[in-house]
Task: structure prediction
Amino acid sequence: MNGEQQLEKARERVIDAISKNMNLYGVTESIGRLYGALYFQESPLTLDEMKEELGMSKTSMSTSVRNLVDLKMVGKVWKKGVRKDLYQAEPDWYQTFADFFTIKWRTGVTINMTAMEKSLYELQMLLDDENVNHMVKAEAKLDIEKLTSAIDYYKWLNRLVDSFETGEIFQYIPKSTK
Amino acid sequence: MNGEQQLEKARERVIDAISKNMNLYGVTESIGRLYGALYFQESPLTLDEMKEELGMSKTSMSTSVRNLVDLKMVGKVWKKGVRKDLYQAEPDWYQTFADFFTIKWRTGVTINMTAMEKSLYELQMLLDDENVNHMVKAEAKLDIEKLTSAIDYYKWLNRLVDSFETGEIFQYIPKSTK
DNA sequence: AACTTTGTACAGAAAAAACTGTACGTAGCG
DNA sequence: CGCTACGTACAGTTTTTTCTGTACAAAGTT
Result:
């Protein structure tokens, strides 16, 4: 095995690990591989180059890269005189991590808070309604308690996300230094 | 709509949100629904009761609940005189959250650290090999830098996970109080 | 203005995953 | 020890997701 092949193999192993890892959080392995490929590039790639690199269709590259951009894991780059769109991987993994979970968690918190507050309100109404059976009310009461503490948790999660977003988290858990 | 229906509707909305939320992190919607159903139960359920509750096969309940147990979101409960396995949802979401991401992140860190350290070693070897082209060595050098800083990041992530596992995180981001 | 090039929408094909039913091993009970 | 009840492995089916190729709109070039 010559040097170039060894280099390729070393990269391939890491790309594999990266894509498996991303897969744990609901990102397709293909998208993970694309990110990995971009990560090892010295300069930004065009869609056609990605297509070449991964042996997939251009359409797939287009949708995959858009996915990565939405996750802020990859950014579009402008280069003078180049007509094609260029993309490169965000090199700072601390940033990538923070963005990724900020995006995901905020989405989740929003979905759940909205639903829970609405349901909480309805359950309160139920308690105030004289026509409702007291067995049902007892259940509603339990649910209200559960939802209330769940909402507390989501408030906490929102604060955690804030600390990711602002970088405050690094005051508590300092970045590793070489 | 009577009280019972209203109660059901309020729960259903929340279960829906929960399952969508879990889905963001690579958990099936069905598994999410199961967790949601368990969350609102007052007492633990058997596989047959879950099957009834969700209108799915017992086999699915078995695999789904095992999934939730692996994630520590649901626990098996023992009850005197009852032969069937009983399961109930972990009620403390702070705990659930910490466990969930501890499990996921540790897995990810391990996968990546192993691969990266191995590749890092190989790349170092490459640099020390006289027969290797200097262009290839230049690339290897860049890769080594990338991997080194990626590994630093994973060390940090490990410390973050530690803080989740020990509960230290709550010193920095205190739990919300009612 | 005509001609290229580039990126993406969309429909259909291919691949992956979730789900079910049967069959079976194991454990409790009489 | 035989019988029943329970949970799960496994194979096959259904559903969902991913991927591709074609077609087209938008922007750039001559």
